[in-house]
Amino acid sequence: MATIKCIGVLTSGGDAPGMNAAIRSVTRTAIYHGIRVKGIYRGYKGLITGEIEDFETQHVSNIVQRGGTILKTARCPEFCTPEGRALAYETMRTHGIDALVVIGGDGSLSGAREFAEEFDIPIVGLPGTIDNDLYGTDLTIGYDTALNTIVSAVDKIRDTASSHDRLFFVEVMGREAGFLALNGAIASGAEAAIIPEFAFEKDQLAETIENGFRKTKNSSIVLVSESESTGGAMKVAERVEKEYPQFDVRVVILGHIQRGGSPSAQDRIIASRMGVAAIEALLEGQRNVMIGIVNDALVYVPFSKAIKKNKPIDTDLVEALRILSI
Ligand code: ADP
Ligand code: F6P
């Protein structure tokens, strides 16, 4: 196994609060171990075009508290092609980068897996996405902050919903995963969540209404995951207007507000711990793994497992929401 002298770090896909804390941790831990660091801008795009800068400890000063990513991020269709990845490999060679730390979601880690296998490059991934949809980790970087953003938004919506006796459908992000909607609903006292995991199993809207929805309250809030399978909040509200016209319905789409803002303490801590673990993993000879966190312990999850898109929703949470919304 060749010694790693220089690592490249990049953020890719949707940004997530805490990515900066992860970049800081990766950079400082590498330098601590005598490894040089190159910051790669705009994800895989910068790896192809060579938008790369030598990073010293001061490059990552004063960023642990900042949302977004100082390295910028991008979606890069070219990296999905063998030609694009070959260009990226050439850039790595030109800049003397021996290994990569990729901070991103499901797509970014799928790309990392292909790239690592094709060119035999050591790559370690960090789960950076508000969606919390990577398998093998209890948490992803950015999820907790996004959840808190949702909760503070729903608290405000509750005031107007109850003043007007209205039914609100609040659409949250998650990209075919219901973690934000389900836990957001529990934390904000919403009456129900309509999530992709059950979209084909049951009629969640009808069930919510038939279960005595609004029995004891004059206003209600339902969180809806943005997704093709749920149809999103607009579609659900259109259905209510047709099938249950007694409700005065409104829709709020929280959108990209969920991706911004200063990271929560939890996101800063997991990002910092995962960054340290990423460099230690590379030094141990680990490759093609994502750093995960399970029961507060750091674990290595092979890329092939992490990206399987089958992270299960905890049914206790579904039951808790059902009980608490009576
Ligand atoms: P996220 O990482 O947040 O899930 P995307 O799904 O948009 O975001 O993926 C980010 C980038 O990762 C894509 O623009 C592309 O460059 C790369 N990528 C995604 N899937 C693959 C794949 N199967 N092969 C190679 N690269 C991929
Ligand atoms: O993966 C993170 C995420 O915010 C998803 O929840 C959402 O579906 C998607 O990215 C939106 O991406 P874009 O940046 O293209 O609007």
From TrEMBL:
Statement: the UniProt record of this protein carries the keyword Ion transport: no
Pathways involved: Carbohydrate degradation; glycolysis; D-glyceraldehyde 3-phosphate and glycerone phosphate from D-glucose: step 3/4
InterPro entries, alphabetized: ATP_PFK, ATP_PFK_prok-type, PFKA_ATP_prok, Phosphofructokinase_CS, Phosphofructokinase_dom, PKF_sf
Domain Phosphofructokinase: 7-282
Cofactor: Mg(2+)
Annotated catalysed reactions: beta-D-fructose 6-phosphate + ATP = beta-D-fructose 1,6-bisphosphate + ADP + H(+)
Activity regulation (UniProt): Allosterically activated by ADP and other diphosphonucleosides, and allosterically inhibited by phosphoenolpyruvate.
Active site: 131
Protein keywords: Allosteric enzyme, ATP-binding, Cytoplasm, Glycolysis, Kinase, Magnesium, Metal-binding, Nucleotide-binding, Transferase
Binding site for ATP: 14, 75-76, 105-108
Binding site for substrate: 129-131, 166, 173-175, 226, 250, 256-259
Function in brief: Catalyzes the phosphorylation of D-fructose 6-phosphate to fructose 1,6-bisphosphate by ATP, the first committing step of glycolysis.
Protein family (similarity comment): Belongs to the phosphofructokinase type A (PFKA) family. ATP-dependent PFK group I subfamily. Prokaryotic clade 'B1' sub-subfamily.
Protein name: ATP-dependent 6-phosphofructokinase
Species of provenance: Porphyromonas pasteri
